[in-house]
Amino acid sequence: MVDLHTHDSDGYSRRGFLKSALASAGLITVSQYEAAAQMLGGTGGRDVQGWGVSPGTVQLSGNENALGPSPRAVDAILDTTYSINRYDLAPDLYGNIARRHGLPVVDVTSQFELPADAWLAVGAGSSDILTAIAHAYFGNGGELVEVSPGFGFMARLANQKGLNVVSVPLADDYGPDLVAMQAAITEKTQLVVVTTPGNPNGRLTPISALKPFVESIPSEVLILVDEAYIDFCRQPGDRIGAAPLIADHPNLIVTRTFSKVFGMAGMRVGYALAQPDVINRINENRANTLSILSGYAAAAALKDHDFVRRSQELVHSGKDYFYSQMDALGVEYVRSESSFVLINLRRDVDTVVDTLAKDHDVWVANAKQRWGMDTFIRVTAGLPEENEAFVEAFKKVLVKS
Ligand SMILES: Cc1ncc(COP(=O)(O)O)c(C=O)c1O
């Protein structure tokens, strides 16, 4: 009997191969979507490198989605491939994003004729949108307020544009100190950044704390709420985020990305939600950056509730596994609502990170190099086998160093 679940050497399942072969022989029919889902999902997926005692590459440093992309997105890309000669934009993309956040729905069918009353702007990743915000609003001599350690993307752009970056240290629980952030605002402040859940800290700023904070900020100061990881929050209510505040706050911008829960980092799709005046200024400061493939893939991914659920479950169970393993080892960590966990080794991490990479091919983020957190590493929740490979390697490296 053929073992339909065995994996062959190049990492694709024999089951998938067999089905495709039978399909091409006309013996069974597999839809393009089924083929994508089979390649990407469950036991039909690629073999995970990093299994067992001699791991291959285990990439847990970049906050990417270990499940791969949404199969519905792959299906849409394949469907759209023969139309890349067109400047087309997926017709339901803008409308469905607006509906997702309860914002006014404005039909947008071309990137070249963006209506002036849209409540969202879509770009090539949320970084594209963040860059446009900097171009639109940063003026020499102004100030930016952001936590430190924080994602820091806007702080880097602010430095380039001659702004003074006011860094507010995280509170003792590694969450943002909103009182100190509010106190740091002066008449020079142009932008205040709240990343929730945070990166690298992973802490959620609940809407109960965010709402009064937004209300306390003067209306001439722009507030950016970066919600790149919000879909990983355990409580569905927390995943709503700050969008409902936009109607009352013309100075509020919320950003989201398709790079995390939808597994589409390489497709580069992200968006901003704000009142139309702000959206128009953002659009004036960016090019038509969305490829036809990205647009159709994003529109399809939005409907892939099954994939979103699987991504959330993978991250939740991965973090629970890290927590229990670190508890057993007596190693401290920061509980996170993002897709990764900060782990405190209470020693300089350079050697540990290097040894994990060189001796075990396990890649984690060095929080000392990236955020000046000398004793921390940041580990993204991957597939169970990858998480196990990390923990096994981590134990060995801890004993050695
Ligand atoms: C907090 C945060 N915001 C924004 C981004 C940018 O994501 P993208 O440009 O892929 O949408 C990232 C990427 O890791 C992130 O961590």
Descriptive keywords:
14 helices; Aspartate Aminotransferase, domain 1; seven-stranded mixed beta sheet; Aspartate Aminotransferase, domain 2; 401 residues; single chain; 3 domains; globular; alpha/beta; 12 strands; 15% strand; binds pyridoxal-5'-phosphate
Question: How many domain units?
Answer: 3
SSE order in H/E notation? Answer: HHEHHEHEHEHEHEEEHHHEEHEHEH
Task: Categorize the overall geometry.
Answer: globular
Bound chemical compounds: pyridoxal-5'-phosphate
| Count of helical regions | 14
What percent of the residues sit in helical stretches (DSSP H or I)?
25-40%
Overall radius of gyration: 22 Å
Tell me the major beta sheet: 7 strands, mixed
Percent of residues in beta strands: 5-15%
**CATH H-level homologous superfamily name of the largest domain:** Type I PLP-dependent aspartate aminotransferase-like (Major domain)
Mean pLDDT, rounded to whole units? 90
What's the total number of strands?
12
Task: Please explain how this structure is put together.
The chain is 38% helix and 15% strand. With 401 residues, it is α/β, with parallel strands linked by helices. The chain folds into three domains: 1-45, no CATH class; 48-66 and 305-400, Aspartate Aminotransferase, domain 1 (Alpha-Beta Complex); 74-302, Aspartate Aminotransferase, domain 2 (3-Layer(aba) Sandwich), CATH 3.40.640.10. The strands form two sheets. Strands 2-8-7-6-5-3-4 form a seven-stranded mixed beta sheet, with helices on both faces. Helix 2 (32-40) packs across helix 3 (71-80) and helix 11 (305-329) packs parallel to helix 14 (384-400). It is globular and about 60 Å long. 46% of the residues are buried. Bound molecules: pyridoxal-5'-phosphate.
